[in-house]
Write a structure and sequence with these properties.
Low-confidence stretches: 1-11, 15-20
Structural class: alpha+beta
Helix content: 40-55%
Mean pLDDT: 86
Distance between the termini: 112 Å
Strand content: 15-25%
Largest sheet: 5 strands, antiparallel
Shape: elongated
């Protein structure tokens, strides 16, 4: 007797089986419908304690983001990332391409700081400090709710927006996007250059105009169309959290031990024989989520720790007379009734590494001056003789002006006595801010100064007009006696 196999299935049965295998849930992703179309999110608004705190932080950050490029320290911008000139000014200090160790230590320090912050507090940056979240949730979504007639509550509007209101909304978005684009560019070109671009016509600076136009268009695309998908698709931070978080990291979590089994709160379904958890399946946590997820499904990449679900759930718990905190700031270990706390290997190792990097950064930074100077030996013979038999050494001095103003430098040779220095090209001694030059110099010395070894230690001294001095040790060469 043959045993039925899958090959014995009828075409109808096979078709039914394939359909069941390919059947998908209502939402494939939080922003993707079952049929593959875009799911537009219009989250409801829950104005709880966390929302008020986030709003204060958001408005303070918006003011900070706008004013930061205008701040000065020691005559320099507080922050200026001038990529075209290859100069980064941070906290009034200018970093040049030659500052490779400082830039490397800075990048490693920033990366470790992000990892350390995530280990402690999860994605608190995404929900509370990221410009994408701040502007989206506290600038553009309130504008949407005003035009849609859902101010103070959010959600799906009761009627469709008219064409006039849609056009006016796009105009408002364009104006705000242009303002944000100019603020964004100020971090890279400086406020002085940006003000010049704004005052002049596009024909005077067509490339700069195209850059501003493109940045404005990118801002409009982000906040008008792409929106929360920036966090879900474009930003890599959510995907990195799996390696940055641990089971004791702070997350927004649903207490399934207390909430399950969930169900509508009625007298019939909440008996001693059939008890129900505190979750009444109202789905308010889903309705207010700006990324469209269900926090009751556990830790998810899409969660940005915005705490809207906490406020919404606490509001429901108050109404039904249950304790707040069914959804709260917690950790995976705490939800599983395991020991939790701040002290663990990561929270000890990361501060140690950050301290070591900070000490190394400050140590290298302390050796930096308002200008860089380096001695290079010129090509050709190591030394030559003059008409009177004096010895000559040809050198090159490489100068980098790190200050914010034009400087003129002087070069002397105080050690040992009897040296004469001649600058072959004095034009290289005057440098604009950030400029570099290589200055050829000739040093003459009496042949009697050279010891039997054919060399003598010397010091070149370089000064700028601000009183800064660099002393460069060097060996002068000559014939052995």
């Amino acid at each position: 007797m043959s045993t039925p196999t899958q090959l014995d299935e009828t075409p109808a049965a096979e078709s039914s089986r394939s359909a069941s295998l390919l059947d998908s849930p209502d939402h494939v992703l939080s922003t993707l419908e079952k049929d593959g179309s875009r799911r537009w999110l219009r989250p409801s608004l829950s104005t709880g304690v966390h929302w008020y705190r986030r709003r204060i932080v958001a408005y303070a950050l918006i003011a900070f983001f706008v004013t930061l490029p205008h701040l000065r320290l020691g005559g320099k911008p507080l922050i200026l990332l001038d990529i075209t000139s290859r100069q980064f000014t941070i906290l009034g200090h200018t970093f040049l391409p030659t500052d490779t160790p400082l830039l490397a230590l800075g990048m490693v320090g920033v990366f470790l700081s992000i990892v350390f912050l995530t280990t402690l507090s999860g994605r608190v940056w995404c929900g509370w400090g990221c410009p994408q979240t701040v502007y989206m949730e506290f600038l553009f979504r309130p504008i949407d709710r005003w035009f849609e007639g859902t101010v103070g509550r959010g959600g799906i509007p009761s009627k469709k927006m008219s064409a006039t209101m849609q056009a006016l909304r796009i105009v408002v978005y364009a104006v705000l996007s242009a303002g944000l684009a100019h603020t964004f560019l100020a971090y890279f070109v400086g406020t002085d250059k940006l003000a010049l671009w704004i005052r002049s016509t596009p024909t005077e600076h067509p490339l700069a105009f195209l850059v501003m136009f493109g940045t404005t268009a990118a801002m409009m695309f982000d906040f008008l169309f792409f929106r929360e998908q920036t966090c879900l698709i474009a930003c890599p931070y959510g995907r990195f959290q799996s390696v940055m978080l641990d089971r004791r990291s702070l997350i927004v979590g649903y207490d399934y031990n207390r909430g399950e089994p969930r169900g509508k709160l009625t007298k019939k379904n909440n008996t001693e024989e059939s008890p129900k958890g505190d979750c009444v399946a109202c789905n308010r946590c889903v309705a207010v989520c700006p990324t469209g997820i269900d926090i009751r499904g556990g830790l998810q990449m899409e969660c940005i720790n915005c705490t809207q679900c906490i406020d919404a759930c606490n509001e429901v718990m108050v109404k039904i007379g249950r304790p707040q905190g069914l959804i709260r700031y917690t950790s995976q270990d705490e939800l599983e009734k395991k020991p939790s706390g701040l002290l663990r290997a990561r929270t000890v190792l990361y501060p140690i590494l950050l301290t070591a990097i900070g000490i190394a950064f400050l140590a290298i930074l302390s050796t930096k001056y308002s200008f860089d100077a380096r001695l290079l030996r010129a090509g050709g013979l190591p030394y030559s003789r003059g008409p009177a038999g004096e010895l000559r050494n040809s050198l090159r001095v490489r100068l980098v002006n790190r200050s914010s103003e034009t400087q003129t430098y002087t070069i002397t040779a105080p050690i040992p006595d009897g040296l004469k220095i001649q600058v072959v090209d004095i034009s290289g001694l005057t440098l604009d801010s950030g400029a570099t030059s290589v200055v050829p110099v000739m040093i003459e010395l009496p042949s009697g100064l050279i010891a039997r070894t054919g060399r003598i230690d010397a010091v070149l001294e370089i000064n700028d007009r601000s009183g800064n001095t660099r002393k460069l040790p060097y060996q002068l060469l000559g014939p052995k006696s």
